[in-house]
Amino acid sequence: MSQDSEYSEGDLRNTGMSLKHDREWDYELDRIVEAVEERDATKVGLQFPEGLKRRGPRVADDIRELVPDDVTVMLSGQPCYGACDLDTFLMKRTDVFVHFGHSPMKNTDKVIYVPLFSNVDVFPIMEESLDELADPEDDPHVGLVTTAQHMNRFEEMKSWLDERGYEVHTRRGDDRLTHEGQVLGCNYASADIDADQVLYVGGGKFHPLGLAMEHPDKNVVIADPVNNVVTVADTEKFLKQRYASVHKAMDAEKWGVIFCTKIGQGRWEQAQEILDDNENAYLITMDEVTPDRLRNFDMDAFVNTGCPRITTDDGPQFHKPMLTPGEYEIAVGNKPLDELSFDTFHGTW
Amino acid sequence: MSQDSEYSEGDLRNTGMSLKHDREWDYELDRIVEAVEERDATKVGLQFPEGLKRRGPRVADDIRELVPDDVTVMLSGQPCYGACDLDTFLMKRTDVFVHFGHSPMKNTDKVIYVPLFSNVDVFPIMEESLDELADPEDDPHVGLVTTAQHMNRFEEMKSWLDERGYEVHTRRGDDRLTHEGQVLGCNYASADIDADQVLYVGGGKFHPLGLAMEHPDKNVVIADPVNNVVTVADTEKFLKQRYASVHKAMDAEKWGVIFCTKIGQGRWEQAQEILDDNENAYLITMDEVTPDRLRNFDMDAFVNTGCPRITTDDGPQFHKPMLTPGEYEIAVGNKPLDELSFDTFHGTW
Asked: What NCBIfam families does the record point to (chains A, B) (predicted)?
């Protein structure tokens, strides 16, 4: 795979939001300026995902041109990899708060969500992906999923497959997802469709890997227009890594139970259950879950009730085994080894 | 200097809170348990500085033994290097919130502050420091300052110097400081005393360096009982680094103005002034100011209105020049080069 070598495996920045291709975006300045006028705003907050943060100053410039002089435009410097990384501090302290590039996890008047769609042409790589999909004469049923940034072409993708003889199955997932066919790193409910194969169109391999873990009975074909490569999701290496972590954690005495304080990531009941069940478990609260922050805690293993992508994709970077709540149950012997599954989130907040 | 080699220069963990010597602490469990009873608390939050985080689980165990079963004890996993790193999320969501190891920056009923005093014997190293202080027959006047963790021995230190013929000058600084003779990394008002020499008793060299920068007319002798070494604060290397950063930033077009959202670090007027004065300045808000978080912003230089220790001690780790507000004024030509001074904080919040 022609992965960007600057980003190591397990790096969440490697999500297709990095600017490998020149793109043009519509920042929906009209909507923002209108909100400033309507609310007599003096403070405007802008939040961009990591890969697009460098666009922030240009967007701020454009907004400053269009609004009164007394309006202060603020850029969020908090890490942002998804819709649950909402900068609630900035949101609460600005009159108009704009979150770019992710679709709402929950509709709220407090946030203006501006999607930033990729303008990469997805069809050449979809053409190549046909080699990995079953011939429509043998099996015409195919599921189609993509990420927020390619959502604007979703209907075209469906038609494109339809024209080639496929019966395309799509659905909107659960409340956590805005669009039909959309997947998140923590939610693949949109792939709960009646087909043995699913085509994922999008950058990176972490989303389709989660998808394949969540739907182990389906063949997951990855058409990646960002890295221009077609692959089939292979969960074997991923499973080996997870089993290795679980095995290492089986000897753990002291457990750190991480409760993530980010909006949309708090699973209090799950954390509380573990604490109630294990007197050597200690609740640790934090927003960003990073190796640095955990290094000073004298624990033998961690279980993360927050973002499963941190646990699995960044897992090897932590100094002690880092498990999902389901993996914890296996490690402490409450569940058999073969119940290892992917950790997903289904609610909003 | 026998610095702990694990910590690089500029590492804020190198503050004497790292456990080089065995120490015993009084966690004031009685006060905590009493507050739990009084408030019928079901949630108790504990926050420790980085170097003491590994003590957290043991303290949590002890508290759990002493309170009803339905009380959940939570450990803050947020980075903590000072009193302004208060975990306000945890504070707001727990009935009893305890901050260990730092003295209050502002008195509030919401927080139980538990000092954790060092039990390192300071007098052997003070004995050695006499070589660097003027003979009391020549100049008996000496200022005495220390950090929160040695505060319990402050009166003894004064007597000790007094017995050796010195006239010891001490004062409580401003509102930001709790104790007479106490210094913070961002505040040296307690050294505003009528003496040409100041003895700093404490770990690390960053505090006394700030002290020497803030009081350039005074000889600052460092008696470091943690690393067991006596030195005289030398601002030359520090100044060279700062001037190098200022010079590099002189060519900057695009400036990132950092507004730190941590309690006690927000200097809104200073940020606003820079924005008003410079149309190529962009306001960036964040809690932790780290090299990683700034890397994705396409700026030529940064000015940090938050913690001056991040700016100066961690400065070289940022990919672009990082200046204090005063240094910014020099870099853009509003002030002459020789006005470079140390950035300090004087209010509470």
From this structure: arCOG04112, diphth2_R
